[in-house]
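Standup notes, structure subgroup. Blocker cleared on the adenosine-5'-diphosphate input:
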Amino acid sequence: MITFEGAAKHYPDGTVAVADLDLTVETGRTTVFVGPSGSGKTTSLRMINRMVEPTRGTVRVDGVDIRDRDPALLRRGIGYVIQQAGLFPHRTVLDNIATVPLLLGVRKRTARARAAELMELVGLEPSMGRRWPHQLSGGQQQRVGVARALAADPPILLMDEPFSAVDPVVRTGLQDELLRLQRELRKTIVFVTHDIDEAVRLGDRIAVFRPGGELAQYDTPERLLTE
Ligand code: ADP
Ligand code: ADP
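Run returned:
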């Protein structure tokens, strides 16, 4: 469970990115942060892995104030996927996915075997493992990004507009894959998008942000649509 308790982020230039966020993100569900550009979704997401420190309030993971956690240890339990997959250009696809386990001291053979399993999990052909990131389509790169984020088997997965840069047909395919993955893995996923259709499709819970960094609504997609 991730809880925001009066969490706020005010930038020195006076911008209120997040006003006063009280929200509980439930374990094992997909919670989508949706809202227009600039409404504080990314800032709120980044408070969870301490890429952003709130200027007020507290964020807890499983009841523990994340300021009391070692940032490196905290992040080991939190996968992070962004719009441009951010793959290492000089590592093969397989080694991109194996990077984190290797850093954690897992033996090379074991890390690569695990990476191969993850490739299958996200729907990438084994032969892709030998390719370089630039040889993949945008959609395939996003799959690699998801596999890499899952490599340390984190209980929490943060996804910031991961599918926004790919064309609509590929995006639908990636959404299907994520739904399938989530049925298998039951991670605590926090997914940021400005696309309400995507939010309704993927979310078990939807947090609607509005300009000024305020939470306008929090509900299930079904209830959100019938209001
Ligand atoms: P969203 O993800 O909903 O598009 P963000 O969380 O990225 O919104 O941004 C919320 C607000 O905070 C925006 O007005 C944005 O311009 C502002 N902001 C984000 N980062 C900074 C920063 N480093 N300095 C000043 N303002 C920022
Ligand atoms: P999409 O529009 O679905 O993102 P692309 O048009 O970028 O796909 O790529 C289509 C196919 O061509 C993909 O299977 C991708 O792996 C392959 N491909 C793209 N760029 C290269 C490259 N530089 N070398 C080899 N294969 C490539």
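Discussed briefly. Strands lie at 2-10, 16-25, 30-34, 56-61, 64-65, 78-81, 156-160, 188-193, 205-210, 214-219.
Next: hand off to the docking folks.
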